Fold:
Amino acid sequence: MDMSKYQELFLSETREHLRRMSQLTIALEQNPSDREGIDALFREAHSIKGMAASMGYERTTALSHHLEDFLDSFRSSGSVPEAAVDRLLAGIDLLEGLLGSIEAGQPEQDVDAFIAAGTDLLGEEPATESESEPGAAPEAVGSTEKVDPAAGSGRSFKVMFELAENTPAPAARALLALEALKTLGRIDSCRPTEEEMKQGFAVRQLAVWLQSEHAEEVIREKVGAMPDIARISFEADRRQEDRPRLDEDVRTVRVRTALLDKFVNLTGEMITNRYMLQSATRSRDWDDVETGLNLLSRLVTDLHYHVLQVRMTPLDGITSNLPRLVRDQARKCGKQVKLEITGGEVELDRAILEDLADPLVHMVRNAIDHGIEEEGTIRVKAWREKDLALIEVADDGRGIDPSSVRKRLSEKNLLTSAQIKALTERELFQWICYPGFSTAAEVTETSGRGVGMDVVKAAVENLGGMLEIHSKRDEGSRFLMKMPLSIAIMKVLLVECAGQTLGIPVTRVLRTLDIRSEEVQLSGRQRIYPLDDEVIPLYPLNELLHLPTNGAAVVHLVITEVQGRKVGLIVERLTGQLEAFVKAMAKPLNRVAGISGATITGEGKIIFILDPQLLFEAEADQFSLSDVEESI
Amino acid sequence: MNLVLIFRLADEWFGLKVDDIQEIVEAPELNYVPRAPESILGAMNFHGNVVPVLDLACYLGLGNQAYGERAVVLPIGQTVLAFGVTAIDRIVPFDSEMMLPCQQEEQKELHIGMLYNHEGQMVNMLDLPSLLGSLETI
Amino acid sequence: MGVRVLIVDDALFMRNMLKDIFVKAGHEVVGEAANGEEAISRYAELKPDLVTMDIVMPIKSGIEALSEIRSADPEACVVMCSALGQDALVVEAVQAGAKDFIVKPFKEERVLDVVRRVLGN
Structure:
């Protein structure tokens, strides 16, 4: 029987089991004698074993069987010893790794070493390796597996190759390098993929995630000695961060049957509606046509809503691994950290959730590393507000010190002292998202120099959201992400410049207003306008887009926020709003800075959607925001 | 049977295997792409997809061409790319005997893989992987 | 100790050039072939340590010959000889089991380096 069609379902279900296993294990660490918890954990391992065995994944089966036996021993003893928690978590990690290999179409990692180590790690009866040791499930030890000296529990790292310039047949060279690596260890994945290389992808660099017991020198000698390899470098495996994503096309979603029934019903109603419209048209009964069209419009709205529902996924999907992360990270830092998650049921478009997973992890890590001092609580909270989903990561740690941010700004010569003085706190904190900026005094292994706040901000904004940073000295920091619920359908404001229509996500627009041209003031060469109690700089969108400009009596302003500061974009016309089905940009358009996507109108016209922040960054040499400050 | 599409860019003749082509679109409507590089003519709506249309002559440095009436659409993995051509000559059967390796370095820069001798006329066969690879850095 | 080499190329010029390189380096050229078909039969009869195989040849291409040789002898050590611009063919050859490739025009030290490496591994 062809099992491959079940693979995806197997993977997603097993991952759910693993997530629960990790949660249950961490709960057991707090409460080691929770009988129900032990039973539940046992059942999870048992389910994985059953599925893996049906799929014929021998090593996954062996390992889950081993964990099941391991857990069974606690069912009789009634409690989980502390050392067992680490081992269970390690086992869960290893299972995750096996799933990764299965997904990538590669052979499963070796698990014998882990299973064999069960005896030593428990430390109870180290010498005997007897059958009574729960860790050594005899039939589970893969006796049929040939021992591959290169495979298995070696270190895991990323090897980067750079090919020399003008390398002939670079794809073939990269394939040969990959072949050579295969003799030295296990390849988890590589970029470009082997498939891409086989298609003759013009490779300049090859990144390989490798597990190998060989020293770097050996690899360097064996593979680096190949002709045309200009450079070879090694990095620790940080795959969580940068493993290539699977193609969108192979992803599937599970749909509640109730929702499918809803689609069937809607289809039925639409068919009836079509007959009604056909007959009304034939008999030229315009009242009936109008009724029919009204009904159609309601049905389409309904359909639209339900189609979006299919894409909605609860936040749980990306918060469920946080307890484990917090536990490990807090332990590493020697801190006592409590984690509270609320609002896990809030639903967002899966595309948004997927892209928020890494930023969320990052903010939580930052909170542990830099926010909390000795002991504290991290609160991850999500809630809905109208069309927005708000997700907040808050800690009760030391907070961001405004004076150290100011000091850093002047040290790095990012702003003049007058500019720094003029910054409000809200604006000031936005600067910690400036690439390369950091206030963290120490560098830690995982979050480094507070790296990544720039990445976090970019991810949030790419999805059409906004990031707010609030912080009070000695009370803690709050990072608030305001996200649209759905990215596939986005409300955009349509504006016109030099006859071209452009879209700006409504989530990025603070307000719009019309003023008379004489109300625009000049400060030096910079246009400014006093809005409420603030003076904001104005920029013609035409100039940002390199389009011709012409003066008009009425100035239409779109007020947006760039780097925490209000900015007015002058447009020629505001032409309305559109519920846009946003398409991601394909190559090479994804290289054009300042556009975040495009949509196709009912008339078949393509409208590009601008990201004001990225637009300003791309035009930084022409439109520097720091200059503005000076001139105001 | 293998076929070759022969088309003109500026003053040069170029060729592509018909198997490598998704479709040839007559007079596509080009939409404005904000801040696009000079070598992008615009974007076209190709069966509901946003497809960039490249000015191949300009991209290859053969000078700005008068944009022709047609765009050749190429599939690249999941996405597509089209390029405008000055004129389309014809489609001819492919004869592997008539393929010649190209000698000059500058032909590599133009992403020309091989030369094709079509009844005495030399046609530059585009090296698609090389061309598409170079677009990564456009 | 020298390596026993079979040189496959339809151009006599190329064969002679490679031969000179190998002989000078102390290797033994045990045979030559001018097309893929000939290469297959000569391989079976000579069992050389190494084959240099041109890609584009009449009667049977280098890649076809490579595949047949490898299926008869999975240990066969074949290095492809390609011209510039044959990237796709080289990729195909690597997939078919070529141990490495050299690109015309050949440089002596490059050829010998490849021989050393593919036989050393």
